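User: Quick sanity check before I run a bigger batch. Here is a single chain. Can you write out its predicted 3D structure?
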Amino acid sequence: MAFPSTRQLEDVLSPIAHAQQLDIEHIKITRAGKKSQVGVYLDGDQRPGSDMLEQLSQQIGEELDAREEAGEMSFGPGYTLEVSTPGLDMPLTHPRHWRRNRHRLVAIQLSGQGTAEVWRIGALADDETAVILVPTKQSGVGPAGSGAKKGGGQASAKTRRTPVALELAPTVHAVVEIEFSQPPHAELELTRQPFGGVEISERLAINPNADDETISSNNQSTAEMDSTD
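Assistant: Done. Predicted structure follows.
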């Protein structure tokens, strides 16, 4: 029996997660001598609390033990299991990540130069192909995100004063930023608006090989974009 791959573990454990309306965001396997470690990181539209994580840890452990006893997989001499939620440093790689982090600050690398800008996340389009980004003046953000400049500063969406629509694609690199103060009311008013109700100045499509982002349309409201796409 071979040590299971992350794909095998995801296939086995997904039904347990889905039964609680959760997604497996990441599985980390660390093989270390006599005892390996398996980390399973779960999230959902309603983030699981400690009680649910404890319950899921028991269910997942029982499932893995049963699979090992049946000869379907082997963890060697033994393993420790960690079941948790992903940290804020997890990249936003799926539309659900943008939906679940609505109203939060996000650092996005908008060009091939490596400079990240900080925006506030607005509504996700119904077809999950684009998201509204609201420019922010917020300065109370943490240093750990990808938007941090050298010397502890923070890039901001200073070149744009109005919301934009960002096309979601694998080329988008984005990480949630820690925020230590209350979000400005004006920014939250915009992030609360539905996707089709926000006036935008640009629609951005990231080109990681270019010196700047590719702009596919200008000066359109999201409602106009929906009718022309």
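The CA atoms of residues 57 and 83 lie 6 Å apart.

User: Great, the batch can go ahead then.
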